[in-house]
Design brief:
Aminopeptidase, Acyl_CoA_acyltransferase, alpha+beta, N-acetyltransferase domain-containing protein, about 70 residues, 3 strands, three-stranded antiparallel beta sheet
Length: about 70
């Protein structure tokens, strides 16, 4: 995963985001442990079940050098 963030930084990205099912507590704990934060909730994002499920957008900022 560190290689992914190094490449993202090299390309000028300032953050990485992902979407996950709100009911997936194990994934939520995993992403939080990796430095992601819950950014917003999208209502009925996953409509592939009889009951729609919300999604969490998770975001992780990429540390950037302050060199000019």
């Amino acid at each position: 995963m560190d290689c992914f963030f190094l490449k993202s930084d090299h390309k000028g990205s300032s953050f990485v985001n992902l979407f996950m099912r709100a009911g997936n507590e194990a994934a939520h704990r995993l992403y939080c442990s990796l430095g992601y934060a819950h950014c917003k909730t999208l209502i009925d994002y996953y409509a592939d079940r009889p009951e729609p499920e919300n999604a969490y957008e998770m975001i992780k900022y990429i540390p950037r050098s302050m060199e000019v």
